[in-house]
Amino acid sequence: GNMGLSGATAKVTGLVTDMEGKPAAKVSVSLFPMYGPGQKLTDGQGRFSLTYNPTQYSSPGSGGGAQPTVVARDLARNLAAALELEEGATNASVRLEPGLAIAGRVSDSNGKAIANAQAQVMFHLERMSSSLGMPVRANAEGRFEIKGLPPGRRYSISVSAKGFGQEQREVAESDSATNRIELD
Questions:
Q1: ∠ at Cα 89 (85, 90), nearest 5°?
Q2: Long-range pairs for 89-93 at CB < 8 Å and ≥24 separation?
Q3: Are 50 and 30 in contact (CB under 8 A)?
């Protein structure tokens, strides 16, 4: 196996458990910041395996660079967790917590609902931010809700709509204490 550095892959295997400590099956797991399609589902025993390229996480001059963060999300039950990997770690056990939900209403300058708007969550890490999950569409009243976000993290919501451009809104940490954030 004569692999150049650029082809280096590291593997993280792990276990996702629910709040009672039982294995959580069919939970979406991904690495952040995200390079490529990193999303997997845990198996029936709550186990997962993700591969990543460590060179993409190191930035020149930072001495090693950032470690990936494992994010697990159970949208059906609104549970989530995020875990920073230790340097060189190949194993991660992630315990789900009650997830954060961000809801909002998208309106134009006259307060009229924008039904075709899309909202995308940006997950902030130490040096960068990365989009989390798929964008959600607002309903006819311009309302959206995004569930299953790891609590206690920094987020912003990027909202875009045809003909209206894009707006990004920071989500304050204090807001996330209630586990439900309302934006206007």
A1: 110
A2: 89/12, 90/10, 90/11, 90/12, 90/13, 91/12, 91/13, 91/14, 92/12, 92/13, 92/14, 92/15, 93/14, 93/15, 93/16, 93/17
A3: yes
How far is it, in rounded angstroms, from Cα 4 to Cα 24?
37
| Amino acid code (one letter) for 114 | I
- Distance in angstroms (rounded) separating the CA atoms of residues 5 and 114: 48
What's the predicted TM-score (pTM) here?
0.83
DSSP state of 68: P
Distance CA 68, CA 33 (A): 6
Angle at 67 between CA 133 and CA 122, to 5 degrees: 25
Taking the C-alpha atoms of residue 55 and residue 145, their distance in angstroms, rounded to an integer, is 35
Dihedrals phi, psi of 52, to nearest 5 degrees = -150, 165
| Tens of pLDDT, residues 63-105 | 455 678 999 999 999 999 999 988 888 899 999 999 999 988 9
